[in-house]
Specification:
This protein is mostly helical and 296 residues long. Helix 1 crosses helix 10, helix 3 crosses helix 11 and helix 5 runs antiparallel to helix 6. The chain starts with a helix and ends with a helix.
Length: 296
């Protein structure tokens, strides 16, 4: 599978020290400032909104409520430390719905489904990271406590979010002929760049006493949450491509950016980086299973 090969190449580049230190950050900046905005501008202006698109807008917030409460109760039951509790409260509700989610949605459902994934990511995961994530870091972390205006500024100046607002404004406007081919060329670079960057960042070593939190966190993130929401959608008779895309996004592994922020805040850096790394590896097994259940 191309994704696995690109991840392996990223690990090899890191092992051989071919790229300079911090190269993964430069690759991530390329995705954030160029490739992902190009993808948004290519997909969103042609999006025809309907009631079906409520699913990718609402589901990430329901995932936050469900998985956050479940993690909190589990940590209290097992008497885990504040650091582990804060780490899992950050890593379980927040999925890698952009860097991994967008390529995976395109792989399983095709390019036309990416617009739903963009809505899930930008109006769900990103806003949750900027608001709920900041709250968890302030409550459990050891770093500087974020102020509300700082959080709001980060939301409003985040390049993909600004691009999303521009793309929504462009809906219904006739765009020049060169628009789509050039944006398509740029946005197609996102998947290989993201996979190599993730491969460079992957860290697999973990102390023994953190193995149980890692295992339970992965099971909650990759299996229990998507299966519960799949059951709920079928019980409520919700269907359609946007619903299927939202359900697949609930099964993405933990967000890498959340791992970075947790590390900065002193919330079990080895645990959070391992959740991101092992989660990506496990996702190549669990995502096809969830996809087959969702599309059945």
């Amino acid at each position: 599978m191309p994704f696995v090969l690109l991840l392996a190449l990223g690990r090899l580049l890191d092992y051989l020290k071919i790229f300079p230190p911090g190269a993964d950050k430069s690759l991530n900046l390329y995705v954030i400032y160029i490739a992902l905005p190009a993808l948004i501008l290519r997909q969103v202006p042609g999006l025809a909104f309907s009631g079906e698109y409520l699913a990718p807008l609402i589901m990430p917030w329901l995932v936050l409520l469900f998985s956050g409460l479940l993690v909190f109760l589990l940590c209290r039951l097992l008497h885990w430390s504040r650091e582990i509790t804060g780490a899992l409260l950050l890593m379980v509700p927040l999925g890698n719905t952009a860097f991994l989610g967008l390529p995976m949605v395109e792989h399983f459902f095709g390019p036309e489904a990416v617009s739903s994934a963009v809505l899930y990511d930008q109006f769900g995961s990103f806003l949750i990271l900027s608001s709920y994530g900041a709250f968890i870091l302030a409550l459990y972390g050891s770093g500087e406590k974020p102020r509300p205006w700082v959080v709001l500024k980060k939301v409003l100046t985040f390049p993909p979010f600004l691009t999303l607002l521009v793309a929504l404004f462009l809906r219904g406007i006739v765009l020049p002929a060169w628009w789509q081919p050039n944006l398509s060329l740029i946005s197609q670079s996102m998947t290989p760049v993201v996979m190599v960057s993730i491969g460079i960042q992957m860290r697999l070593f973990l102390p023994r006493h953190e193995l149980l939190p890692l295992a339970l966190g992965l099971v909650l993130r990759l299996l229990i949450t998507p299966l519960i929401f799949l059951w709920a959608c079928r019980y409520l008779q919700l269907s359609g491509r946007a619903v299927q895309v939202a359900l697949l996004e609930t099964a993405m592994p933990s967000m890498i950016m959340a791992s970075v922020l947790a590390s900065v805040a002193g919330l079990k850096p080895r645990l959070t980086s391992a959740m991101a790394a092992y989660g990506i590896g496990c996702a190549f097994v669990t995502l096809p299973i969830i996809y087959n259940l969702v599309s059945a």
